[in-house]
Design a protein that fits this description.
By secondary structure, the protein is mainly α. The chain has 2 helices and no strands. The chain has helices at about 1-40, 45-70.
């Protein structure tokens, strides 16, 4: 019973936050690519790329707050 509790603690305290950080890094990287495309790509697409960045920022904020709450 205590082994299961210990593994549950490891999962909640270590694995979930690690997954959250992974998603944050991926969203930041994706946003960097979208900004680069917006600056160097087709000007007609720049608005869509910046919209994607805004969506990523919203997700980053939500996940960051969840991370700090855990």
């Amino acid at each position: 019973h205590s082994t299961n509790e210990a593994l549950g603690t490891v999962y909640r305290d270590r694995l979930i936050p690690l997954g959250q950080l992974d998603v944050l890094v991926r969203l930041l990287t994706r946003s960097q690519l979208e900004v680069t495309r917006g600056l160097t790509g087709d000007p007609a697409q720049a608005g869509q790329e910046m919209d994607a960045v805004e969506q990523n920022i919203a997700r980053i904020d939500r996940i960051w707050n969840e991370y700090w709450a855990s």
